[in-house]
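Box 3.1. Reading complex inputs
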Amino acid sequence: MPAPLQWLLDPWQSSIVGPGAAVTVVVGASAAAIGCWVLLRDLPYAAESLSHGMFPGLVAASLLGIPIAVGGIAGLAIAAAAITAARRWVSPDNHAVAVAITPLLGLGAILALSGPVPPGVGDALFGDVLAADTTDLLTALLLAPVLLLVLRTAHWRLLASGVKSYDSSRMDTLVICLLAVATAMAARSLGALLAVALIIGPASAAQRMTLRASSMLWLASGIAALSAVVGIEVAWHAGVAAGPTIAICAIIPAAATVLIPKQTTT
Amino acid sequence: MEAVPVSAASPQGAVLVEEMVAGYGGTPVLTGVDFVAAPGERVALLGPNGGGKTTLIRTLQGELSPISGTFSLDGQMGHVPQKSTGRNDWPVTTLDVAICGTLDGLPWWRVPGKTQRRSARQALEAVGLGDRSSTPYGELSGGQQRRAQVAAALAGGASILLLDEPFAGLDAVAADRLEKLLATLARAGTTILIATHDLDQAQAWEKVLCLNGKQLAFGPPESVLTRQTLEATFGSDLLEVPGGGFMAPPHHHHDH
């Protein structure tokens, strides 16, 4: 085998890389598809804030001795509900998100600072790609198709929401709920804070490259999957953490597309 | 452009409004609305900004419940908004927009299939946009976007069209083309309610409904478009033009 190819395949011969890489590819591809609608519906601030909103759930789970994932999902559900509720009474939307999320973040900080830093919180916030196992992979393989099926079913209604004020509020709620699930899934690999990169980065790049919704979704999913593979490759050879490296790889295409003109019409 | 519109197969639309009071949160904005629009009639909704045109449109659309009184629609209603979306980069083609018009007739779990695509294509042909189906919606001119919205309503089976200031911002050629399209649809039996400020156009339509917080007049243009009624509708804003005609004040978008 040629040396360069051998060099490239090195990481993939390790038994600890496979499950983590597979989980990140599957989760990244579906999360990026949802990310497209997050951008189109102008909800990136909600996406960024949602991961902060899960913080008290993570800390509470750690303090109570229950699985961190359960706390994270509960935290996300509360954050998603809080954002959805706040958007009914507070406008503009960004103010509503701030009103909903800031108290949750504060609550998490109070809990975390009330004693020693709870174990597991660091991984929950920043992830651990290589810690993924077969159960994580099976969970991703079960949840990702469900997410994509919901997106497929809602696709035309989401499109219509931008053509006329078709169920605008309901479509935003749907996107926020899907976003919460995607964040919970991506948090296992990248952590709650870095998961946003995989959700928003590829979608942002895809949005600049096409004017067709279906093309945008496919492109974003492809970029996210590629970011996961390239990120693991780079992290392996550079000897750095895989999660942050994947997050950076997911953002680079968006940064690069700034150099090309955005696909806009007159 | 002159192709048979999609709604021609079931041109039974009619609007019946009886003693209706409409408004927001129980506060009346519009009172005493009482009229009948027969199939194939074009009805001009005339009134000043804040006079209640949009309130009437939102009520007939079902967005607002009448505070009192009733209305009934004998047919499917299609709404053509004044402005569809502020974003020209929304990732849809003209055909996509027409397909979106079919969603109201589908349960939430169904995605548009061949039947809906066929209806959408027929509707685009009917409005003269058959050759622009794959064009990004944002690349259409204002007049073409308005016609694409009409196509969306027709694709959804609308036999009653509700247009909110459809001629606002259009140049003379685009306005003329839209005017001819509406005439063709009306001849095919579609009932068309049009919020407008253009008294000349209203003169050419079958009925005129004057609103200013209440219904001031309804009937054929020759009996409604009098100095007395127009002054009651537009007040001191009404402009008299040389030759004896009148001109409504310029439009400014208003939520009521």
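In summary: The mean pLDDT of chain B is 85.
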